[in-house]
C-alpha cells in the first residue's frame, strides 16, 4: 500500500529515527523505486519538491494519528503533527494540485478510459502520494489501521488478523522482552 509505504519512510532504528526521505536525492531514489507512482524514469526531486513531500508526510501522519484514535499516535512525530484541520487541508490541496483528464487507450479491440495528469510535473509526486493517502483513509482497511505500540517503534500498520498487536515479529519480540524485563527488574 503506497500510503503506508509513504508514512513508513520515517522509521526507528537502533541509533534513533531514520528518514528514507532525508534529502532530495533520497526522495528521488525512493520515488523511482515505486512503480505505482508511474513517474518519468528520469525523475529527479528538487529541493522544493522534497520539502513539499516531507510536509505532506507529516500531514498524512497526522491523519493516520486521527484514524487510530482513541489509541495513541506513532511516537515518531506526535509532538510535531499539525492540527487535524490543517493536515486535512494540506493533503486535500496536494491531491488537487494535479488535475487529470480522460484519455482513451485502445488495446486490440477493447477501449479503456484512463485518467492522466495534466498539471505541472513538479506537483505530480505530491498529488499521487496525497491521493493514495486519501484513498486509503476513505477505504475499508482504515478500520484496521494501528500505531505499533512496541518500544521505540514509530510505524503504522494494518492489522491483518485478530491477535496481531505489532507491526512485525521483531517489534513483538522487543515488546515481550521489555515487559519481561520490567516484571523481573525488581527481584
TrEMBL record:
What is the protein's given name? CGNR zinc finger domain-containing protein
Where in the numbering of this chain does the Zinc finger CGNR domain appear? 145-182
Record InterPro entries:
ABATE (IPR010852), ABATE_dom_sf (IPR023286), Znf_CGNR (IPR021005)
Q: Which residues cross the membrane?
A: none
First and last residue of the signal peptide: none
One Pfam entry name: ABATE
Q: Could you read off the lineage of the organism from its UniProt record? A: Bacteria, Bacillati, Actinomycetota, Actinomycetes, Streptosporangiales
Amino acid at each position: 500500500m503506497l500510503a503506508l509505504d509513504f508514512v513508513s519512510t520515517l522509521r526507528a532504528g537502533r541509533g534513533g529515527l531514520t528518514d528514507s526521505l532525508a534529502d532530495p536525492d533520497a526522495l528521488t531514489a525512493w520515488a523511482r523505486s515505486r512503480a505505482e507512482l508511474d513517474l518519468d524514469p528520469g525523475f529527479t526531486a528538487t529541493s522544493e519538491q522534497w520539502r513539499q513531500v516531507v510536509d505532506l508526510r507529516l500531514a498524512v501522519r497526522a491523519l493516520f494519528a486521527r484514524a487510530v484514535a482513541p489509541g495513541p499516535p506513532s511516537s515518531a512525530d506526535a509532538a510535531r503533527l499539525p492540527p487535524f484541520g490543517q493536515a486535512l487541508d494540506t493533503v486535500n490541496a496536494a491531491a488537487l494540485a494535479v488535475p487529470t483528464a480522460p484519455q482513451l487507450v485502445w488495446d486490440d479491440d477493447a477501449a479503456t478510459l484512463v485518467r492522466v495528469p495534466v498539471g505541472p510535473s513538479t506537483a505530480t509526486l505530491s498529488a499521487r502520494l496525497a491521493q493514495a493517502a486519501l484513498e486509503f483513509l476513505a477505504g475499508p482497511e482504515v478500520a484496521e489501521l494501528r500505531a505499533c505500540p512496541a518500544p521505540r517503534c514509530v510505524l503504522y500498520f494494518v492489522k491483518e488478523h485478530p491477535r496481531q498487536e505489532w507491526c512485525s515479529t521483531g517489534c513483538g519480540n522487543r515488546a515481550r522482552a521489555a515487559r519481561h524485563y520490567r516484571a523481573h527488574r525488581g527481584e
